[in-house]
């Protein structure tokens, strides 16, 4: 054993390393602990070795080993062996009971730490995934709320223009109603009693500018079984003064210009 240290000797660098790795027997650890408690120099060296060992043990595949930690830990042991002064003889520790223990305790400790780190990494990844899902859900709700607010603004704006569309050649049943807010390019259109179309065709809504420019496509739509259809907030530029709105039948993908005849047409009147 080490015994009580009163003559100024120090624990060897190798024994300090084994003490840091918890590879000494219970008796040897007790003796070494008594000396370290009394010797500031050995206590400082032990603290430095334990710090470097912790950095080595806590490094995992997901995180790079802190720069120089392993080399610093191993180098400290080699340097301390060389630096021991001849007058400061190292205190021997019996290896007969410590050798076998030293072979497996450090690896078990490191393995346990690595398993803890792996579990923590898995847990953090799970929490990050939950955070991403919650963030996406909040963003979707925010988008829906903004869309609903935009619809309400178009429907209730004092300067929104209300349009009634009727069949061009006959007083027949198909009708369309629209609300157009030119200042923001907001348009909401509702049609009723439309005839069904083959899959190769679609209805297309047109905004006819008051300044004589070519009609602007304002959305494609197909009626349901009751002949009803709607176009809500199509992507129109803001600030275009409209003369009228019209509806034509086009190919399924839509057209860049209206194809005659115009089935529904309505003049745009000033908002009240």
What's the story with the biggest beta sheet?
Answer: 8 strands, antiparallel
Secondary structure tally, helices: 5
Q: Sketch the topology as an H/E string, one letter per element.
A: EHHHHEHEEEEEEEE
> What share of residues is helical?
40-55%
- Strand segment tally: 10
Q: What integer is the average pLDDT? A: 79
Q: Pairing-aware structural class of the strands and helices?
A: alpha+beta
Spatial sequence of strands, sheet with the most strands: 7-6-9-10-3-4-5-8
Q: How much strand content do the residues show?
A: 15-25%
- Envelope shape: rod-shaped
Which residues sit in consecutive blocks of at least 5 with pLDDT less than 50? 1-7, 60-65, 84-91, 93-105
Notes on the protein architecture:
This protein is of the alpha+beta class. It is built from 5 helices and 10 strands, in the order E-H-H-H-H-E-H-E-E-E-E-E-E-E-E. It has helices at residues 13-20, 26-38, 40-58, 69-83, 99-156, and strands spanning 10-11, 90-91, 161-167, 175-181, 186-192, 201-209, 216-221, 229-232, 242-251, 264-267. The strands form 2 sheets. It has an 8-stranded antiparallel beta sheet with strand order 7-6-9-10-3-4-5-8, with helices on one face. It has a two-stranded parallel sheet with strand order 1-2. A hairpin with a 4-residue loop joins strand 4 (175-181) and strand 5. Helix 1 packs across helix 3, helix 2 packs across helix 3 and helix 3 (40-58) runs antiparallel to helix 4. It is rod-shaped and about 115 Å long. It starts with 9 loop residues before the first strand and ends in a 5-residue tail after the last strand. Mean pLDDT is 79; it is low at 1-7, 60-65, 84-91 and 93-105.
């Amino acid at each position: 054993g080490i015994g009580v240290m009163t003559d100024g000797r120090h624990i060897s660098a190798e024994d300090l390393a084994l003490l840091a790795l918890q590879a000494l027997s219970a008796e040897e650890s007790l003796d070494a602990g008594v000396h370290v408690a009394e010797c500031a120099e050995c206590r400082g060296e032990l603290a430095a070795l334990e710090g470097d060992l912790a950095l080595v043990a806590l490094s995992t595949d997901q995180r790079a080993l802190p720069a120089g930690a392993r080399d610093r830990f191993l180098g400290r042991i080699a340097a301390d062996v060389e630096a021991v002064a001849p007058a400061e003889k190292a205190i021997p520790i019996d290896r007969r009971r410590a050798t076998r223990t030293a072979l497996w305790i450090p690896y078990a400790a490191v393995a346990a730490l690595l398993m803890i780190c792996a579990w923590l990494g898995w847990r953090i990844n799970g929490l990050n995934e939950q955070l991403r899902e919650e963030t996406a859900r909040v963003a979707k709700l925010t988008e829906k709320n903004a869309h609903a607010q935009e619809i309400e603004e178009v429907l209730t704006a004092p300067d929104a223009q209300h349009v009634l569309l009727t069949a061009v050649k006959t007083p027949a049943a198909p009708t369309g109603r629209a609300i157009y807010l030119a200042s923001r390019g907001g348009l909401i259109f509702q049609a009723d009693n439309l005839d069904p179309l083959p899959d190769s065709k679609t209805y297309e809504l047109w905004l006819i500018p008051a300044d004589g420019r070519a009609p602007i496509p304002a959305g494609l739509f197909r009626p349901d079984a009751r002949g009803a259809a709607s176009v809500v907030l199509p992507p129109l530029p803001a600030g275009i003064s409209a003369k009228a709105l019209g509806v034509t039948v086009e190919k399924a993908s839509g057209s860049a210009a209206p194809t005659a005849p115009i089935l529904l047409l309505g003049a745009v009147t000033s908002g009240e």
